[in-house]
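Per reviewer request, we include the raw input and output of the structure prediction for the construct analysed in the revised manuscript.
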Amino acid sequence: MTTLNSRLQLAMLNRKKTKNALQKGFTLVELLIVVVILGILSSVALPALLNNQKRAVASTLDSEAMSTAKACLAASITGDEGTVTPVGNVTGTCNAVGTASTFTATDDDGRASAAVAEVSTEGVASLITPSVPTGGNNNNNNQPV
């Protein structure tokens, strides 16, 4: 009879151990706390991310305008002014040597103001008006940030 009791006790212990193994996990309160913490972190990080994106767009516009102006300058030196055509968001015309050429890069979504680069009559490429991030997010709201 004692072996039956010990076997019964052993079976009960094994059953209890497997039952506890199946019931492991997180409580609802713990999961809610994690969701609240993630919400707070995302509300802090999202505005910073959007501001960085606008600054990147402004920097890209500056680079596009200057690279087109430098290409025009190089073409003017070699006598190939007519071969330079602005690409992307850049507008302008490459003029002959001794004539100023102006190139403007704009953002269609209004995230940054236009960047203006010029090739002067002396043959110097410079950024006249650097692009500045604005408050727009696809709504053409050109208010400075």
